[in-house]
Specification:
This protein is mainly alpha-helical. It contains eight helices and no strands.
Length: 221
């Protein structure tokens, strides 16, 4: 399966590179909002994570059996997604009143899904180191996913900015779930799941910045 993982890592790298270059051109070179730049940085982290994984597998001809540097890229990517939504966006769309209590509770759906997938991973994969590392990764995915899902379902208050980027938040939320499914497929040796989650996940990562840019163009603030 190592050769197949190598190929999948290369595919993820190529597609995520497209998304990263697109975001860099449209958000950094054109000096757009910090929010969009942080999301581009997240895609860059995913890109470098897949690049490291590809180069390691290509050079050593063996799969990972525990922690590797590429996992820091995944953690970094979701840290950027979390910081973008929590630090830059949430204060604009959540006025902290009781009327949004239901939305805040429903937003827990995403973290619950992620943690459930980690429980599945924990039961299927017996490697203690992998259990610990993927547990940390799952926490970052869950934290970012909470705000992505919240901004999908939240009532768009006066500024009207969330409605324009809901599709981006759908993609970012799906990205975390797909990465957890990829880890289950890879380390529990469920080949079809690994292939499906890797390919769909790579496409999702590639689309994040173009979809975000399309939505940001509609902002009127």
């Amino acid at each position: 399966m190592e050769a197949n993982i190598t190929i999948m890592s290369l595919i993820v790298f190529i597609l995520s590179m497209f998304g990263y270059v697109y975001g860099t051109h449209n958000f950094f070179m054109k000096s757009k909002a910090l929010y969009t730049q942080m999301i581009t940085a997240a895609v860059g982290c995913f890109m470098f994570s897949s690049l490291f994984e590809f180069l390691f597998l290509f050079a050593h001809k063996r799969a990972f059996t525990g922690f590797h540097i590429g996992m820091i890229g995944i953690i970094g990517g979701f840290f950027f997604l979390f910081t973008a939504n929590y630090g830059q966006m949430d204060g604009l769309v959540d006025d902290k009143t009781k009327k949004l209590t239901k939305t805040r509770i429903l937003a827990l759906i995403d973290p619950i899904i992620v943690i459930t997938l980690y429980v599945v991973f924990f039961r299927l994969v017996k490697n203690i180191e992998l259990r610990a590392v993927i547990g940390v990764v799952a926490l970052f995915i869950a934290a970012a996913g909470y705000y992505n899902f919240k901004h999908i379902i939240i009532y768009d208050v006066e500024l009207g900015i969330v409605a324009q980027i809901r599709l981006y938040n759908v993609l970012a939320s799906a990205c975390g779930v797909l990465i957890m499914l990829k880890y289950i497929g890879q380390y529990a040796k469920i080949t079809w799941l690994y292939y499906a989650a890797s390919i769909v996940g790579a496409i999702v990562i590639m689309l994040i910045t173009p979809v975000l840019e399309r939505g940001v163009k509609k902002w009127t603030i």
